[in-house]
Amino acid sequence: MPKLPARHFRRLHVPVLRALLCPLAAVAVMACATGDMDDRSASAPPSMDDGTADTMSGVAGGGGGLLDPGAALDRELDDGLDDSDDSSVVHSGAVRRTSFEVGPYVFDARHAGPEDGELVVLLHGFPQTSYCYREALSVLGEAGYHAVAPDLRGYSEQARPTEVEDYRIELLVGDVLGIVGALGVERFHLVGHDWGGVIAWKVAADHGARLHSLTVLSTPHIDALRAAEQDPSSDQAMRSAFLDRFTGEGGARSLLALGESGLRLMYTGIDPDDIEYYVSQVGNEEVLDNALNYRRANGISPIEIGPIAVDTLYVHGADDQAFGPDAAAGTADHIDADYRFESLEGVNHWVPDIEAQLVGAWILQHVQAH
């Protein structure tokens, strides 16, 4: 696919009030129905003495109760990793485990491809892990790139600070640069989705000379997001506020207390087995509270980004629950380099999961062009 000229983009067709019915908004609506967040977080968890099961299993169905991710399936979940000792997997695109020590933290990661290949770093979002990039990692690794997707701060078991200020955007950027430094690499390609996209925009703005290319999935340029939020004709402010009910003290516990109807509902559109894997990894109070610290520490739109001077691919799901068409279309105004925009009709926020093969191919095309 040829590279499109700067500021080229397709028109989006999304109803202005789609967010009123989106699953992410529905989670917040359910929280409102269960009572005030501050009241719930200050009190003891609801009693389960009435015989109601306090674990949830499967994907379909409803009910409350604290989520027990370990009870979701009675079989081992596939983590998408190849644990073989066969050295040939390095060149086959197989996804392997690795880790990186950065300051006081150790970041778990998935990676694929030869370790002397050109580096591509892929950053996941909320509430997911590097698992969302398993297809892209394989595609990039098979093409000879060293593709690395870390489990970010708050998600990696040995990188879980508990203070809100430990999740400031400059520290998240530092983690990325630290991982790249641990690999002994100066310039690299960068990919980000959701909060990984926020971090990717910030890296590109502040350290653009170190990037060969930038790919962002779902998350619009933050300056475009802020403009859309301030536009009274846009529904973006409503979309952006969906998690605010869970950022107070005890927010993670309140989200988990919604059980299957809460956390799992956020993953609407993702394959049921993949939903179970995510729940097994992030469906506990510690990790989910850390993940919410990203928003507590930074908001989203208050982060200053500025113009991007890196060739950029931006992929947006036209049915994205969190980021609407106004911010997506406005992203072009903040790219001072070659810009390619792809809109996926019928696809929601979970672009890397729902369109894994297509997105992996687009990332590879963009990387190969730079």
Largest sheet: 8 strands, mixed
CATH homolog superfamily of the domain at 98-243 and 267-368: Alpha/Beta hydrolase fold, catalytic domain
Distance between the termini: 14 Å
Q: Categorize the overall geometry.
A: globular
Protein structure class? alpha/beta
The CATH class designation of the domain at 98-243 and 267-368 is Alpha Beta
Element-by-element helix/strand order? HHEEEHEHEHEHHHHHHEHEHH
Low-confidence stretches: 1-23, 29-76
Number of helices: 14
CATH architecture of the domain at 98-243 and 267-368: 3-Layer(aba) Sandwich
Notable traits:
370 residues, alpha/beta, Rossmann fold, eight-stranded mixed sheet, 14% strand, disordered N terminus
Summarize the structure.
The chain is of the alpha/beta class and 370 residues long.
Please describe what this structure looks like.
The protein is α/β, with parallel strands linked by helices. The protein has a domain at 98-243 and 267-368: 3-Layer(aba) Sandwich (Rossmann fold). The protein contains 14 helices and eight strands. It has an eight-stranded mixed sheet, sandwiched between helices. α3 packs across α14, α4 (169-182) packs across α5 and α8 crosses α11 (285-298). The protein is globular.
